[in-house]
């Protein structure tokens, strides 16, 4: 191809992109969208619909993650789910899933895709955030009967966990949270890897959905909302129900063992870490329970409060 225009004419048929000539969905969504599709909302669905019918024949990402875990284990990381048959926690979507919906994009909506292989994934940072949230509310639940002002306690707990260093005065549940998830000037001992779907040959994993804001002028032009405004349907891309994902969490055993000989950490912190090292299966079960509760009850990604991003066995 000699020019960008020649490329666009080659891969497009009217407003539909021929994905047999451009197999990387991420490249198509980031670099190969026609101006007319951006300016005419009705063309958006014409552009996105072919994506849902793409047969996915991709490299085995499960094998890639296994190799990544093997490399990390050489540096002292231990697989939390090493005793499970698949060496990971497998769950499937029980509702549509959309990650990165609010990221900046010319089509107003987005989806987190691997930039090389064009497949969707859940960033490890998103998983860590929702699991940390589960443990936060678990601490609140366990202490709510011992406080007079629950709102004040929640605010103080947020400050303790997210804004302060590990302190000798920390209670056990707060200390465990900081050791596992991190605190000011301390990297947590858990590492959450990106979660990828298990995609079989020719399996379709995408599905279109529509949201319909009613007060466009109110949201975009600072105008008063009114029933005279027309609804504005916005088509967006999601991951279908019943798509299997593999979740992997590692524990930094090397750093944990170093802490046992570090005078900067309290005796209580060392006892907690020693307990995890001696009874690793208990720590594994604890993290598994948190992760399952996070994904089955709270969900991950955008629109979780509306039922998106929920998983099941």
What's the SSE blueprint?
Elements: H1 4-11, E1 12-13, E2 16-17, H2 25-31, H3 35-39, H4 41-48, H5 61-74, E3 77-79, E4 89-93, H6 124-143, H7 150-163, H8 172-181, E5 182-183, E6 186-187, E7 190-192, E8 196-197, E9 206-211, H9 216-220, E10 234-239, E11 244-247, E12 249-252, H10 253-259, H11 267-278, H12 280-298, E13 311-312
Antiparallel strand pairs: 1-2, 3-12, 4-11, 4-13, 5-6, 7-12, 8-11, 9-10
Helix pairs in contact: 6-8, 6-12, 8-11, 10-11, 11-12
Structural commentary:
It is a single chain. The chain is an alpha+beta fold and 313 residues long. It has one domain (55-312). 41% of the residues lie in helices and 14% in strands. It has 12 helices and 13 strands. The protein has a 4-stranded antiparallel sheet, with helices on one face. It has a 3-stranded antiparallel sheet with strand order 3-12-7. A two-stranded antiparallel sheet has the order 1-2. It starts with a helix and ends with a strand. 27% of the residues are buried. The model has no long low-confidence stretch (mean pLDDT 87).
Q: Number of DSSP strands?
A: 13
Strand order of the largest sheet: 8-11-4-13
Low confidence ranges: none
Task: Bin the helical content.
Answer: 40-55%
Instruction: State the end-to-end distance.
Output: 47 Å
State Rg: 23 Å
The fraction of residues in strands falls at 5-15%
- Mean pLDDT value: 87
Oligomer: single chain
Structure class: alpha+beta
Order of helices and strands: HEEHHHHEEHHHEEEEEHEEEHHHE
Backbone shape: globular
């Amino acid at each position: 191809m000699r020019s960008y225009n020649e490329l666009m004419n080659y891969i497009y048929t009217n407003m539909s992109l021929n994905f047999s000539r451009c197999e990387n969905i991420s490249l198509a969504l980031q670099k190969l969208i026609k101006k007319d599709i951006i300016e005419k909302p009705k063309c958006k669905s014409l552009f996105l619909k072919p994506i849902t019918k793409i047969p996915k024949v991709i490299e085995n990402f499960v094998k890639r993650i296994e190799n990544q875990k093997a490399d990390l284990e050489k540096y002292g990381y231990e697989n939390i789910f090493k005793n499970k048959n698949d060496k990971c926690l497998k769950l499937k979507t029980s509702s549509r899933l959309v990650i990165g919906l609010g990221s900046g994009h010319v089509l107003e909506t987005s989806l987190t895709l691997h930039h090389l292989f064009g497949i969707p994934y859940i960033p490890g940072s998103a998983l860590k955030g929702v699991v940390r949230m589960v443990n936060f509310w678990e601490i609140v639940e366990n202490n709510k009967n011992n406080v007079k002002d629950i709102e004040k306690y929640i605010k103080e707990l947020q400050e303790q966990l997210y804004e302060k260093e590990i302190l000798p005065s920390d209670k056990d549940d707060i200390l465990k949270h900081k050791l596992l998830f991190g605190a000011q000037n301390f990297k947590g001992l858990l590492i959450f890897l990106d979660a990828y779907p298990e995609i079989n040959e020719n399996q379709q994993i995408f599905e279109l959905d529509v949201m319909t804001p009613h007060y466009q002028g109110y949201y975009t032009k600072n105008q008063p909302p009114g029933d005279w405004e027309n609804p504005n349907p916005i088509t967006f891309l999601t991951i279908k129900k019943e798509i299997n994902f593999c979740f992997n969490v590692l524990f930094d055993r090397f750093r944990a063992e170093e802490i046992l000989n570090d005078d900067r950490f309290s005796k209580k912190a060392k006892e907690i870490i020693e307990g995890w090292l001696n009874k690793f299966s208990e720590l594994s079960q604890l993290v598994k329970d948190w992760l399952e509760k996070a994904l089955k009850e709270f969900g991950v990604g955008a629109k979780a409060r509306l039922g998106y991003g929920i998983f099941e066995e």
